[in-house]
Amino acid sequence: MHIFTLQRLVLFMILAFPMAAKGTHQVGGHIEMKALGNVAGHYRITVINYLEDGTRGAANQSTIGTLGIFRKRDNALMTTFMVQQTGSRVPIVYANGFCAAQRNLKFIVLTYEADIQLPPGNYTDTQGYYISYQTRNRNAGISNINGPSQTGFTFYLEFPAIQQNNQFFENSSPHFGPINGEYICLGDAFTFPFGGTDPDGDELRYSMITPLNQKGATGQNGTTNPVSAGPYPDITWLAGYDANDAIPGNPSLRIDSQTGELSVTATQLGLFVFAINVEEYRNGVKIGEVRRDFQFLVIDCPPQTTPDPAVQIKNYPKQLTTTICQGDSAILIAAVDPNWNYQWRKNDINIVGATNPTLAVRESGQYSIVVSQKAVCSKVGNSEVIKVDVIGSDARVSATGHLCATTGSIKLVATGVPDVTYQWYKDNQLLNGQITDSLRTPDAGKYWAVLTYRTLGCKARTDTAVLDRSAPVLPSITSSSGFNRICPNSSLPLVGSGGLLYRWQKDDTSISNNESSQLVASSPGTFVVTATDIYGCEGTSSPVTITSVTPVVVTLDSIPGVCGPNNPAYTLTGNPPGGDFAGAGIETDAFVPEQAGVGNHTITYTVKPAPECAGTVATRIAVVAPIPTIQLADSLTTYRGNTFSLNPVYTGDPVQFQWTSATYLDNPTAANPTIADIADDITYTVDATNSTGCAVKDTIHITVFARAWVPDAFSPNGDGQNDVLELPGIAAFPDAVFTLFNRWGEVVYSSGKGYTNPFDGTLNGTALPTGVYAYTLYTAPEKPVTRGRILLVR
Questions:
Q1: How far apart are CA 17 and CA 141, in angstroms?
Q2: What is the CATH number of the domain that holds 770?
Q3: Three-class SS string for 26-85?
Q4: What tens digit of pLDDT does each residue of 753-777 get?
Q5: Would you say residue 256 has pLDDT above 80?
Q6: What is the model's pTM?
Q7: How far is CA 295 from CA 143, 278, 355, 411, 715, in A?
Q8: Do 33 and 172 contact (CB within 8 A), yes or no?
């Protein structure tokens, strides 16, 4: 071994061995979803998880896991469920076990499963749904991502709506078989079958993609298996790496978009993570996808002579194909060299325990052997491929059709190699005369066919088709109200159940253009519904007779109005009896004015023609009227011949008015009458009544003066008598202006409008001298100005 090569090998072994002591050493995995076919929406969910064996993570790996199903459109959680580990931990077989052991390449496969039932009617969104499973952590020695020991996994699968256009959309995700344990030799061309098959025959398209990290907390104290909605974070690539350069090379790691075969000629040592997106197409339309996460180790393989194994079929050394009957075997022989390791493969997958130069084959397949030097990490040699056909190994029975509870038939077709004869069996009984490759039957049971190969005489039995009848379709009709009757002036929604599509009849007449589970009955009659389930099976409900509820005429006696709330309760009368009174102030069947308060109150009486129906309502107005009041002065002074209005302020909404006496009034029934040309003192009484009959009255006395008088003298000397100038009758003239002048004609006093501040003999607070003063008095516009003199005596 060259020194440089040895140094690199030792260095990489130092990097590789500590992996067994750190982290959980997750390697990769994916999710699969298989339709079980017995019931619509019944699926088996499988989680494949690859781990490094012998590590703490593998030893402590949980035997259960939690998955979530989410709607793609809005990431809404649809359901969660648990998967359980099934079977034992299966090792991944390496062609060169010595070299794998040198680099601690010891992987196991853990399989988790759960059978779940998804209601098709809940999964109808055209954008589809996804399943996610999260776990932690990745290998600390990974070379192409940042912080690998604190980076987790999200396994991800998308699937389409289960129910589309009111029909069951049957689909299973791609299936991936077991894989070989492989490492990549630096500088050597490397290929690896990483593709799968689709149970429904859908097209699969492969592409490189960035692996997903775990969403949320990770690490030793983080959440191990959270259920959280997408979007999920990508892992963080180190500089120089991405989805299409996960393993540097010439070329770098690639995948065939049609076959799923990986290829690379690596140019850098290391442990490299990558992911593959497998998209599922039906009729050119994408219906789902699965992400597969994995990792490869690139090592420096020392230059050794590559072994060149030679293989042959025992007794047939010159041919690479053979055909045998079921139960027989073909012996495959490789060249023997004591310095070689041997590993047989079937269909490119290493066979567990097949490490001898010979192999007894009893199953159809393509067989080859991989040979490597013992105790040396060298390149391996691959033999030619020998094809073994086992007559009847591909004998299968396919079934089309469905057995409903009492109707239906299924066509069975046996497939296998050509040039055979057929004989059919049911429940261990020979079916006479059934000798073709197909059989149509209306009966449940266990069916298979025996195929006889004419040339070799081999007999092969197909697998068994177990035919069961589906449960009977038992539709029923329920009403939205729970009663089979239509309320007056209404309709009754009917709901059919027990199927997927529905056909309605009323009085033996079909109601066309209605496949819905709901029907609105607007008139009475007898209804039946025929339901079709997801398999096309039908069943008819029992008849349901819908009647009409007789309407009721509801009356409520009038309610007398009352004046003010301080009145006794009034017993209400409604017909027909048994209804409910409602409104302000209602106590059972009485109206209580004190509780209601002043106002116009709407009182209702409601009677339901049936318990589920809306009530028929009669309405009355209960009036608790306010007691009227009148704000009117007790007395008023005016002058003879004056015309003016009386303007009382009313409350309590009076509508009728009566004034007595009517003398001088323009309208004795007006709320605010006008007094015209009053001549003498008079007293008026007004009676006011509101619409409820509540009454009130008030009185005003009017004093009439013919004129205002000015005395000849007054003595403002502080003796308490005649200290201000009194003008008798001046109150009758609210617009009067009294002005006083001295002997030089100067104004010493002016009252302004109205004589509200009588003259006290002073001017600006100074006493005026004794003397005669002239005055003018304006009383009303239509009256002349009074002029005169007045003596001020001290």
A1: 9
A2: 2.60.40
A3: EEEEEEEEEECCCCCCEEEEEEEEEEECCCHHHHHCCCEEEEEEEECCCCCEEEEEEEEE
A4: 989 999 999 999 999 999 999 999 9
A5: yes
A6: 0.60
A7: 10, 17, 25, 46, 128
A8: yes
Closest CA to 405 of 596, 535, 311: 535
Same domain? 572 vs 642: no
CA distances from 237 to 242, 247, 249, 265 (A): 6, 12, 17, 20
Q: How far apart are CA 622 and CA 184, in angstroms?
A: 97
Q: Kindly state whether residue 306 falls inside one of the protein's structural domains.
A: no
Co-location of 606 and 675 in the same domain: no
Coil, strand or helix at 161: coil
Q: Which of 445, 552, 437 is nearest to 488 (CA)?
A: 552
Query: If DSSP states are collapsed to H, E and C, what string results for 260-324?
Result: CEEEEEECCCEEEEEEEEEEEEECCEEEEEEEEEEEEEEECCCCCCCCCCCEEECCECCCCEEEE
Spatial contact of 218 and 135, defined as CB atoms under 8 Å apart:
no
Number of domains within the chain: 7
The number of beta carbons lying within 10 Å of the beta carbon of residue 182 is 19
Q: Report percent pLDDT > 70 for the chain.
A: 94
pLDDT number for residue 12 = 35
Among 529, 430, 533, residue whose Cα is nearest residue 478: 529
Do 413 and 456 lie in one domain? The reply is yes
Whether 96 is covered by a domain: the verdict is yes
pLDDT tens sequence across 499-513: 888 999 999 999 866
| Residues whose CB is less than 8 angstroms from the CB of residue 357 and which lie 6 or more positions away in sequence, other chains included | 333, 334, 335, 336, 342
Between 375 and 539, name the one with better pLDDT.
539
Strands 77-91 and 153-159: unpaired
Residue 635 CA neighbour count, 13 Å, CB half: 6
Domain boundary among 449, 467, 485: 467
In the chain, count of helices (H) and strands (E)? 4, 66
Please state, in angstroms and rounded to a whole number, the distance separating the CA atoms of residues 439 and 680. 129
In terms of residue numbers, what domain contains 520?
476-548
SS3 of 375, please? coil
Helix (H, G, I), strand (E, B) or coil at 596: helix
- ∠ CA 109-113-115, nearest 5°, is 165
Whether residues 618 and 634 fall in one domain = no
Asked if 30 and 174 sit in the same domain, the reply is: yes
- What single-letter amino acid sits at 112? Y
Tell me the CATH number at 447: 2.60.40.10
Residue with tokens 């079709």: 532
Q: How do residues 453-502 score in pLDDT, each as one tens digit? A: 887 888 889 999 999 999 999 999 999 999 999 999 999 999 999 988 89
Q: Is 508 left (phi over 0), alpha (psi -120 to 50) or beta?
A: left
160 is a domain residue: yes
Q: Residue 634 in contact with residue 615, Cβ under 8 Å?
A: no
* Distance, CA of 239 to CA of 253 (rounded, Å): 17
The shares of helix, strand and coil residues in the chain, as percent rounded to the nearest 5, are 5, 45, 50
Q: Do the Cβ atoms of 163 and 169 come closer than 8 Å?
A: yes
HEC letters along 105-153: CCEEEEEEEEEEECCHHHCCCCCCEEEEEEECCECCCCCCECCHHHCCE
**Beta strands 408-415; 492-497: pairing state:** unpaired
Is the pLDDT at 330 greater than 90? The verdict is yes
